[in-house]
Design goal:
The complex is a heterodimer of chains A (101) and B (674). With 101 residues, chain A is an all-alpha fold. Chain A has three helices and no strands. Classes of the chains: A mainly alpha (101), B mainly alpha (674).
Chain lengths: 101, 674
């Protein structure tokens, strides 16, 4: 049986990759992909730790729920990115700095 | 002798007027027009003299007049001031105003053409005013004030030619010497006031007055007011005597008088005859009842010593005025010694006769100096016109000056028929009579006085012979101007016996002497004959000897190199001794304190200044660098911090996110690993 720590390491690696993508990518779509990575790291954790749950299937249930929520979020995010692109003519987050002032 | 009937009140006003006129002269001349001429002061002095004469006639030998007014009140004590007219003060009044008037008239010619002549008249007025005030006042305090005024006006007059260095020095010297005496006088006044609580001369010194009725019990001096140890009685007497020493130029404070010759000769005459130096003797006369036996002994010794010393000095001086100055000191020594031996009346009698003939001596000498000075200026020569070695044979050119000066010299020498004969013999005889009752050094007093009177004969004969006899050296010196000669003649008449006594050989018939009651001394009849006879025979011998010695003009009686000659010529080295003792030591002290001042005090101040400079430099640096640096540093830090934190607010989402993430990570690191 695969020990839980392996799952945890994979999940941490996934989270870090996602975080790295979010922080460094010059494209909003890629940032969105990074977010998905991070969500999936969390989902992986839910599923792996679900094994320890006394109430069977709780972790899997939560993972399904999170996937659905992530899909909905991506839909909204893509819509925002579209609007951002319309407004700024770019989706490079480094060039969008009207948040200051 | 009451020729004039005057009420006391009138006398009071008259005497005040006599004092006030010279003051008026002083004020009006000083603040009036500069070239107002001599008429006004002479008029004033004449009025003053006439008033003095009338007051004199009314008061002489009558009951003393003593009107007083309230002066000021301290607490409940009322201080009175007034005038005291008794024989002593009216005689002095007459003398002062008379001599001053004559000197005023003399000065018309003598001071003619002087640039500051109006000041001269003014100062003369002030001088007469202070002297007149001094003699008539009845309060010790007022007496002291006038005493100071006399000192001050003499200072002005001696330094009248103040552009001459010697004159201003002499004036300062006179003033300083007199200050020493003033200190003594003031001390005396304070002791008297402490003991008796009053300044009133009449209450103090009248017969039956406070001083008379105070007694000595168990070495305590007790008066009705308070008591103190008896030593203060002697101290008071000596303190007053110190005042008299300075004013009357007695040993050891006599050195100012010869130097005072730097003033105009008429002023010297005034100072010497009737005003300033007489004030000391006058003071002794006023406070006479105060002196106990110690004070009287000191007075006698000082008087005798002064008389002898000054006479020996006068023998070798060459300046005509200096000879006369030392002669005055010597004669004052006689008067003071007479006071000391209780010959109160004789002393004042000598003061009176001396006033006339000494005034005449000076004025005649002044005439000679005046004419020689003009001669010198006329021929544009350069010589000391006061040096008797250069004079000679002036009797032909200036017969009047010669005659009058001879008369006064005879009076000074005490030759018969002159006034000096009367007073000097009175003095000598009473000293012999006094000495009969004592042993020891007191026996010597009359002999020293007699010896001194012979010395006097010698030096005055030398003066006359050197100046007037012998070969004539100057051609074309004219007789003195008429204003001067009138005065000389008047004074010459006053130098004969007639003014003072009808009998030329009996001083006891003199009205002046009879006006003063002397302490009764046992009378020795044979002395009244032998003393004058011996004294005068030897005097005449001395005159002949001097004549033989000096007739040739060139001869010197003494070797220049002899110790005695130098001792005498340098005036017993008094000036040198004072220079050594006081002046140079004082100068050294002041040098020392100047060095101390410069080195220590200034050094300290400079050091402190430098220290402060350094300190302020440090605090300046501290202010600039630390305080300002701190403020600037904080400001700069705030700016830097602001700039740094601005970096995070760049509006880029990813950067915010990085910050947040790193914060969270930091938080976790801190929480879990540290």
């Amino acid at each position: 049986m695969i020990p839980i720590s392996h799952f945890m390491l994979i999940s941490a690696a996934l989270f870090c990759i996602g975080l790295y993508a979010v922080l460094t990518k010059r494209n909003a779509i890629q940032v969105l992909i990074g977010i998905e990575f991070m969500i999936n790291a969390a989902v992986l954790n839910f599923v792996a730790l679900g094994r320890l749950d006394k109430f069977a299937g709780g972790g899997q249930m939560f993972a399904l729920f999170a996937i659905v929520l992530a899909a909905a979020g991506v839909a909204v995010a893509l819509a925002i990115i579209l609007n951002v692109y319309k407004h700024f003519r770019t989706i490079n987050p480094a060039k969008i700095d009207t948040l200051k002032d | 002798m009451e020729l004039l009937e005057l009420s006391d009140n009138n006398l009071f006003l008259l005497s005040l007027a006599a004092v006030a006129f010279p003051l008026l002269s002083f004020l009006i001349v000083l603040f009036g027009k500069k070239n107002s001429g001599p008429a006004f002061p002479i008029l004033n002095l004449s009025v003053s003299f006439i008033i003095s004469l009338s007051v004199f006639l009314a008061v002489w030998n009558a009951t003393p007049v003593h009107p007083q007014v309230e002066w000021f009140t301290l607490g409940t004590k009322v201080y009175k001031a007034g005038i005291l007219l008794n024989n002593l003060s009216v005689l002095m009044m007459l003398l002062v105003s008379g001599i001053s008037l004559l000197v005023h008239i003399y000065s018309i010619s003598y001071m003619k053409g002087d640039g500051n002549i109006h000041k001269y008249w003014a100062y003369l007025g002030l001088f007469c005013f202070s002297m007149m005030g001094l003699v008539i006042t009845d309060s010790l305090l007022l007496l002291y004030m006038f005493w100071e005024l006399v000192g001050f006006s003499s200072y002005l007059l001696i330094g009248f030619w103040f552009t001459k260095e010697a004159a201003s020095q002499a004036a300062k010297k006179a003033f300083i010497m007199n200050r020493i005496g003033d200190l003594g006088f003031l001390t005396g006044i304070m002791i008297i006031y402490t003991q008796f609580g009053t300044f009133d001369l009449v209450a103090l010194f009248d017969s039956g007055g406070l001083v008379d009725s105070s007694s000595i019990i168990d070495s305590m001096w007790i008066s009705s007011h308070s008591q103190m140890p008896v030593v203060w009685l002697s101290t008071a007497g000596l303190a007053f005597f110190i005042g008299a020493i300075a004013k009357s130029a007695q040993f050891p404070l006599h050195t100012w008088l010869p130097d005072a010759m730097e003033g105009p000769t008429s002023v010297s005459s005034l100072i010497h005859a009737a005003t300033m130096v007489a004030a000391g003797v006058f003071l002794l006369g006023r406070v006479y009842p105060l002196f106990d036996s110690i004070s009287l002994n000191v007075i006698t010794i000082i008087g005798v010593l002064t008389a002898f010393m000054a006479a020996t000095i006068a023998m070798t001086q060459n300046d005509i005025k200096r000879i006369l100055a030392y002669s005055t000191i010597s004669q004052l020594g006689f008067m003071v010694a007479a006071m000391g031996i209780g010959a109160y009346g004789e002393s004042l009698f000598h003061l009176t006769t001396h006033a006339f003939f000494k005034c005449l001596l000076f004025l005649a000498a002044g005439a000679v100096i005046h004419q020689l000075h003009h001669y010198k200026e006329h021929h544009q020569l350069e010589f000391d016109h006061q040096d008797i070695r250069l004079m000679g044979g002036l009797r032909k050119q200036m017969p009047l000056a010669f005659l009058t000066m001879s008369v006064s010299a005879a009076a000074l020498a005490g030759l018969p028929l002159t006034s000096g004969f009367l007073s000097k013999d009175a003095l000598l005889i009473s000293s012999f009579e006094w000495a009969q009752g004592y042993h020891g050094f007191k026996k010597l007093v009359p002999y020293i006085l007699t010896l001194t009177s012979w010395l006097t004969v010698f030096y005055i004969a030398r003066l006359i012979i050197k100046v007037f006899l012998g070969k004539s050296r100057f051609e074309g010196i004219s007789e003195v101007p008429s204003a001067m000669s009138t005065v000389l003649i008047v004074l010459a008449c006053c130098s004969f016996f007639l003014l003072f006594s009808i009998n030329p050989f009996s001083f006891e018939s003199s009205w002046v002497l009879r006006g003063f009651s002397s302490a009764g001394v046992k009378r020795f009849e044979n002395m009244h004959l032998t003393v004058p006879a011996i004294v005068n025979i030897i005097s005449i011998v001395i005159i002949l000897v001097a004549f033989k010695l000096y007739r040739k003009g060139e001869a010197k009686a003494f070797s220049d190199r002899g110790f005695l000659y130098r001792f005498s010529n340098n005036a017993w080295y008094f000036d040198n001794a004072y220079n050594l003792l006081f002046v140079s030591s004082l100068e050294r002290l002041s040098h020392l304190s100047s060095r101390f001042d410069i080195l220590i005090i200034d050094g300290l101040v400079n050091l402190i200044a430098r220290l402060m400079n350094m300190l302020s430099g440090i605090s300046d640096w501290f202010d600039r660098n630390i305080v300002d640096g701190l403020v600037n540093g904080i400001a700069a830090f705030a700016g830097k911090a602001g700039k740094f934190s601005r970096l995070f607010q760049n509006g880029k989402l990813q950067h915010y996110l990085i910050t947040m993430v790193s914060l969270v990570i930091t938080f976790f690191i801190i929480t879990y690993f540290i």
